[in-house]
Amino acid sequence: MNVTANDNNTMITVRNLSKTYSRKGVGEPALQNVSLAVKAGELFGLIGPDGAGKTTLFRILATLLLPGEGEATVCGLDVVTRWREIRARTGYMPGRFSLYQDLSVEENLAFFATVFSASIKENYELIRDIYVHLEPFKNRRAGKLSGGMKQKLALCCALIHRPDVLLLDEPTTGVDPVSRVEFWDMLGRLKQQGIAILVSTPYMDEASRCDRIALMRSGRCLATGTPARICQSYKRPLYSVRSSRMYPLLGHLRSWAGAHSCYAFGHSHHLALKDSATDIASLETYLKEKGYTDALIQPVEPGVEDCFMELGND
Amino acid sequence: MKQFLSFITKEFHHIFRDVRTMIILLIIPVILIILFGYAISTEIKSSPIAILDYSRDNVTRRLAEQLQASEYFKLYRTAGSYEEVETLFRQDKIRLAVIFPAQLAGAGEPSIQILADAANPNEATSLIQYATAIISTSDIAVSSLGAEVRQPGIVPAVNLLYNPQMKGAYNFVPGVMGLILMLVCALMTSVGIVKEKETGAMEVLLVSPLKPVYIILAKATPYLLLSMANIAAILLLSRFLLNVPVAGNLILLVSISILYALVALCLGLFISTIANTQQAAMLLSGMVLMLPVILLSGMVFPVENMPWILRVFSNIVPAKWYIIAVKNVMIKGLGMAFIWKEAGIMLFMILFLIAVSAKRFKTRL
Lengths: 314, 365
Description:
The complex is a heterodimer of chains A (314) and B (365). Chain A is α/β, with parallel strands linked by helices. Chain A has helices spanning 54-61, 83-89, 105-115, 124-134, 147-159, 177-191, 227-232, 246-254, 280-289, 304-313, and strands spanning 10-20, 29-39, 43-47, 69-74, 77-78, 90-93, 165-168, 196-201, 212-217, 220-225, 238-242, 259-265, 268-273, 296-299. Mean pLDDT of chain A is 86; it is low at 1-6. Chain B is 64% helix and 6% strand. Chain B contains 14 helices and four strands. In chain B, helix 1 (2-17) packs across helix 9 (212-240), helix 7 (169-199) runs antiparallel to helix 9 (212-240) and helix 13 (318-331) packs antiparallel against helix 14 (340-360). The A-B interface holds A 59, 62-66, 83, 87-88, 90, 92-100, 102-103, 107, 110-112, 114-117, 157-158 and B 2-3, 6-7, 10, 13-14, 17-18, 199-201, 203-210, 363-365.
């Protein structure tokens, strides 16, 4: 029996997974009834703020934590019983891992290659795209690299043994915007090699780079699907409102009778209406009454962040 | 094997690139040896004394000269009055005063007054012993005062074995070896392993195909090698700087040191399974390992004089057994037959600690 080849090439499955950290099973659960599946060659994003349970899920999949209830498989292998096999086939990049700061770029890579019984030479093909960015600094200590460079090196180290599954826990946190874009480009090329990639991020704008996403909050999975499908499921009329006095505007918008919710969104406020029948002209009158002469109201398409705000409100 | 070697290479990179680690490994042992060998010494050398001589005759002058000639004493001042002696004591200028009464030679029962500053009782006792010995064995005292008449019937013939000059270094060199091996092996290993946990590297290493036991072994090996280098350095320093020779079998001494280093490594490993941060590991190593080595191993304070509860507790301090074994081999020149008990106890400690640590070591987080 070939355990690795599932019917639809699913590399990661998570079914009704729950996990509570306190010993007796009481207290806030870190994960509650989470289910998802990642196929080979798919880039799957876990989107959610800190404390959503993303790291817990990664650690369970990396066989570092035991699941509380429910089950999880990686490469078709159960994370509880077949952990040793899973460890050999998984590339894991923990969130706070910062490599060995006192080893050079090359030494770090060589070390992880040997530890994972691989060599830089045989898998150079896989990491070449990423490593070309690092090659000029290969004799520099990892501690002296920029945040973006560090993450690229960590990605190389996680890839060096040609894993079937790549688990990346917040790889772009603390990385400058340009490097973040580069990093996602690299992930896009990696999935073409057939690697199943599970990646987490607190940045909503990165959700669109994933094939499918799961919105997570307080240990729960709020929604799963392609970013487009999740945005389509957003039913409320949504407007962006701007004025020269943004801070008091937020309070006034929230206290407006027709408002369902209102939150700061970059340079404007996003306002979700209670129902689609509400006339937006009445909002203009309302704001004029409150003294906002320069208020600019525009309808906007909902994004992943809007969906997240809407789902998290329930 | 290749993985293991590459891991050890990585460890050596860590060690050689960290200034703090290098200081602990290379400078501290030398400082400790010099500190304990010279500065922190229980030996009496050139203690300042005062002499108050009311008699001022030939005999007292000779006695005073002989006191000054000894390496234990140095004349601070010849006092003119008893009040002056008291003042000198109060000002902490002298440790001992010898007062010769008027007409010492002619007196029926010649007696000499010796005053000592007993604020430090051990030192005072030694000083009085030395002074009494010098005076009572002095030829001038014997011939002109008839001091031998007063000797009791039984004369003890004292013969100090193994360390005839009562050098403190003979006691401290084994102690410092015990301390340094504990420092290098236990502290550095525990901090090293906990550091991997703290930085998150352990997460990746655990996920790797590398077996956890190899991770631990690879962490411990460099420190074991370095501690051997330290032992060599200490033995060389003690031989050529402190003049403490190795009386016994060098191979036996090194073997017992390796055994002790293994105990220390296992202790470090055990601590690393408890502590989650480097500070905690350092604190635990410092409090649980270093202090007992200094206080309860018999290195500084004799265990025999402690309350029974501390005496019982001292038995679980590995350094105690190591220091006994090292003294037997290094100072007394005894062979394996005289240290099998100590070696056995340390071996038992190793097995016990490995069993406990193996049980506690987590293959998960």
